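Quick one: structure for this chain?
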Amino acid sequence: MTREQLTEKILDIKREKGWSWKQITDEIGGISPVLIVGALLGQHKLVKPLAAKAGALFGLSESETRMLNEVPMRGIPMPPTDPLIYRFYELVMVNGPAWKALIEEEFGDGIMSAIDFDFEMEREPDPKGDRVRIGMSGKFLPYKYFGAEQGIPSLGLKED
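Got it. Here's what it folds into:
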């Protein structure tokens, strides 16, 4: 079985049981719902205790459960073709240069981690149509300036 086939099996079981992602993530627990759903969709791995819980919940074989604990090949083809995912891509294409400039002005020369990262999503009622509120928090990782001589900063932190 491939990882893609396991994802399809999990989605088939979710449909057959009529489960919501909230029910599934509440049952498995232990980490962010985004990471659990991502793992069940093949984009993350689950640590062994959570893979075991997911395996039991979905009635997976030992081999399938072990597959949930493997580091997957991550990502999707670019640009994405799904309209909702494409809108995130569009947000980055249009606003990315401004976000980059603002982050670098505040923190220095570096990146925002997508690994040491938190994501929150909530529904925001609005009379014109409900809105999606998204909050993202990633650790700032300064570039390391290899070979920096004494007296020269070795990290790309903001200079006063």
